[in-house]
Amino acid sequence: MANTSDIRKGLCIRYNNDIYKITEFLHVKPGKGPAFVRTKLKSVTTGKVLDNTFSAGHKIEDVRVETRSYQFLYADGSTYHFMNTDDYNQIALQESALDAPQLLKEGEIVTIMFNTEDSMPLSVDMPASVILEVTHTEPGVKGNTATNATKPATVETGASVNVPLFINEGDKIKIDTEKGNYMERAKE
């Protein structure tokens, strides 16, 4: 058993007869009244996201997890296939288990969390950022750089990302997987 002081991003807890992964949290200590923790929970079985508030000191049932490195092989509709990088065993997961499936390219190494009790995969953690090639974008207008103007660009996985005007087709860009935002142009 854990309590609210143990809450952190990525923690898996048992709540309302389901297993949830904490995606966001905020400890709040108002001037009046008791402290509490606001959380955003994502169900690892259905993918449903819900907001919940725990009062300070509330007991929560955490789920013991084990993480393993897997390589993304390919997607077949809404089923994503991964291979363990240690023993080459393959598993297939539904799209709802992934946080940012549109940024996943073949060969990418991800971390998959497993429940230690029944060895069921719980969620897929993407790397903090990915480097993808821009496959389509409109050319930037010369001289239109006074403001932080952006334009839509399609990357090799098919995802659409807003990028600065100086980015052209064929450029490799670094994308934040948590928010899906452009970070910088990748160094070759």
TrEMBL record:
<comment type="pathway">
    <text>Protein biosynthesis; polypeptide chain elongation.</text>
</comment>
<dbReference type="InterPro" id="IPR012340">
    <property type="entry name" value="NA-bd_OB-fold"/>
</dbReference>
<protein>
    <recommendedName>
        <fullName>Elongation factor P</fullName>
    </recommendedName>
</protein>
<dbReference type="InterPro" id="IPR013852">
    <property type="entry name" value="Transl_elong_P/YeiP_CS"/>
</dbReference>
<dbReference type="Pfam" id="PF08207">
    <property type="entry name" value="EFP_N"/>
</dbReference>
<keyword id="KW-0648">Protein biosynthesis</keyword>
<comment type="function">
    <text>Involved in peptide bond synthesis. Stimulates efficient translation and peptide-bond synthesis on native or reconstituted 70S ribosomes in vitro. Probably functions indirectly by altering the affinity of the ribosome for aminoacyl-tRNA, thus increasing their reactivity as acceptors for peptidyl transferase.</text>
</comment>
<dbReference type="Pfam" id="PF01132">
    <property type="entry name" value="EFP"/>
</dbReference>
<dbReference type="Pfam" id="PF09285">
    <property type="entry name" value="Elong-fact-P_C"/>
</dbReference>
<keyword id="KW-0963">Cytoplasm</keyword>
<dbReference type="InterPro" id="IPR015365">
    <property type="entry name" value="Elong-fact-P_C"/>
</dbReference>
<dbReference type="GO" id="GO:0005829">
    <property type="term" value="C:cytosol"/>
</dbReference>
<dbReference type="InterPro" id="IPR014722">
    <property type="entry name" value="Rib_uL2_dom2"/>
</dbReference>
<keyword id="KW-0251">Elongation factor</keyword>
<dbReference type="InterPro" id="IPR001059">
    <property type="entry name" value="Transl_elong_P/YeiP_cen"/>
</dbReference>
<feature type="domain" description="Elongation factor P C-terminal">
    <location>
        <begin position="130"/>
        <end position="185"/>
    </location>
</feature>
<feature type="domain" description="Translation elongation factor P/YeiP central">
    <location>
        <begin position="67"/>
        <end position="122"/>
    </location>
</feature>
<dbReference type="InterPro" id="IPR011768">
    <property type="entry name" value="Transl_elongation_fac_P"/>
</dbReference>
<dbReference type="InterPro" id="IPR008991">
    <property type="entry name" value="Translation_prot_SH3-like_sf"/>
</dbReference>
<dbReference type="GO" id="GO:0003746">
    <property type="term" value="F:translation elongation factor activity"/>
</dbReference>
<dbReference type="InterPro" id="IPR020599">
    <property type="entry name" value="Transl_elong_fac_P/YeiP"/>
</dbReference>
<dbReference type="InterPro" id="IPR013185">
    <property type="entry name" value="Transl_elong_KOW-like"/>
</dbReference>
<dbReference type="GO" id="GO:0043043">
    <property type="term" value="P:peptide biosynthetic process"/>
</dbReference>
<comment type="similarity">
    <text>Belongs to the elongation factor P family.</text>
</comment>
